[in-house]
């Protein structure tokens, strides 16, 4: 193998097409552009989205204006006023509401709204409650139970509140830890908030009451006290 034996693979390199070089070349006269028209002229390039002058597709397409929250939960709403005929001591669940025709089906989570009078002495299981509905049900002596979606399992309110409080406490500790970083040493600025407050309280207790400072005795006063009485 020598340098003069090297050559590209067959078919990888083709000669450029020579157009407009007379009838004998096979591509003379119109040079492969057809006859007349905008595309046969020099500089007659047309954008890919051009549709001959008619209204283009990107203008004909309707636009989606406004904001759409992708995390929005669509509930099946139900007003308290539609439950006024429920007897005392009845357990109301989404399946019961669907069976009685109060909601269309159970494909959506149920939310109880506070429009109308609340039924007395019943238990309602639903996936959501408005604040006014909770107040009216509590005043009427009824109990509520929130359900999870889509498994319809009862939610432990106390455990949920404890978890939220624990999360808030951890966040407060992280904020306090970040607040003590990056400050000078020996100045007391880098101490935690609890230690700084304890140091301030100790300094306040050591100071005399009334906030007045004790001035040192002057030379005149000390001489007066040392003189013997007649």
Q: What string, H for helix and E for strand, traces the elements in order?
A: HEEHEEEHEHHH
CATH topology call of one domain: Ribosomal Protein L15, Chain: K, domain 2
What is the average of the pLDDT values? 83
CATH architecture verdict of one domain = Ribosomal Protein L15, Chain: K, domain 2
CATH structural class of one domain: Alpha Beta
Distance between the termini: 135 Å
Low-confidence stretches: 186-190
What oligomeric state best describes the polypeptide chains here?
single chain
- Shape by Cα distribution: elongated
Number of strands: 6
Q: Tell me the fraction of residues in β-strands, as a range.
A: 5-15%
Q: In percent, how helical is the residue content?
A: 25-40%
Note the main sheet: 3 strands, parallel
Widest beta sheet: strand line-up? 1-3-5
Description:
The protein is of the alpha/beta class and 230 residues long. The chain has a domain at 72-179: Ribosomal Protein L15, Chain: K, domain 2, CATH 3.100.10. The protein is built from six helices and six strands; from the N terminus they run H-E-E-H-E-E-E-H-E-H-H-H. The longest helix is centred in the last third of the chain and has 23 residues, at 157-179.
